[in-house]
């Protein structure tokens, strides 16, 4: 999700939940995303995952940002839409993770623990490095690239 601020375009990012990310900030924020089910169209999955991770609905109209490959090799297909929301009203779904690692003990955590609006400059510092091209593509599509 993006919105046009007074000075700049702002993007809505989420911070991963759980103890592994609890004290990490720069370079770990992400676009709301997730896995798609067998036979599910990637855009339909993106819309579903956005709502599951944030509690906010998405509109019908999207800008295709294309795919990126994350550091771990996972390919992420991304779309953008213009919108607005109050990050303090975000409600994330929960998932189970093994914690501590290799302990065999499962704990339930929110997929994302917080969300915020960031200027493009701030987002470049906070978002996963492999997702920075999505910010660049958004600016190109909006004719704001410098």
Helix % is: 10-25%
What is the name of the CATH superfamily? Nucleoside Triphosphate Pyrophosphohydrolase
Radius of gyration: 15 Å
Largest sheet: 3 strands, antiparallel
Strand order of the largest sheet: 1-2-7
Query: CATH architecture, please?
Result: Alpha-Beta Complex
| Top CATH class | Alpha Beta
- String of helices and strands: EEHEEEEEHH
Distance between the termini: 21 Å
Could you say how many structural domains there are in total?
1
Q: Report the sheet-strand fraction.
A: 25-35%
Specify the structural class: alpha+beta
Determine the CATH topology: Nucleoside Triphosphate Pyrophosphohydrolase
Give the count of helical stretches. Answer: 3
Number of strands: 7
Give the averaged pLDDT, no decimals.
94
Give the uncertain stretches in residue-range form: none
Structural shape: globular
